[in-house]
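Re: the 226-residue chain
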Amino acid sequence: MWTAELHVDGGDPHDRLKLLKLDPALYDTEIAMPKDKGKKALSARDMAKESGYSAAINAGYFDENYMPLGYFRTKTRKVNGYIGTPIIYSGMIVFKNGSAAIIHRDSFNPEEWDEAFQAGPRLIAESKPTCGLEKTIDYSKKSRRAGLGFDSRGFIIAAVTAGGTTASWKQMTDTLLNSRHIGIKSFINLDGGTSAQIYAQSGRKTEIDERAAAVPAAIGFRKKNH
């Protein structure tokens, strides 16, 4: 587990992006839902503590009734079978045998994966910014942000704006691509605003604790038993 903070490109002096890097050889990745604990919503911190995760980050979009927007399927049930077509739903985060990947929704075949949910937009693919986002509101609008990606070695990169600071999609993209030591290859936007949060603990030490409102789903990272 590795953490870092980056200044947000083009942001105010206090605007920062907090990163968590995880080796997929050491951590399994899965969807976490409070419903499995008999609750409607929990913070990423509480989900991590209740499920024994080393880390967790909020997942995709949801409505006022805590129902996921866009396709959403866990190992045990299909919560939403509709695949949304707007540009903000351009990506799928898919899971198989404890590993995760980001693919375009057009490449998604439900039969190939154990779990999956729709999110987006994909901000970075093959180490390049995604084209066609320039006319969307959030391309230049600043808000609290969260996202998930992978570096060139396949390590997981989870990111959130730190301490309540903000960034636009463009700033998130530029910050990650311009930090060459990160080596970002792919990155997808997750739900932001009051949902943007991440929690990580290594041993007894809390590495990151960016708190926000309770959410109905998160991505959990569990230390493998070798």
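The helical segments are 44-51, 169-178.
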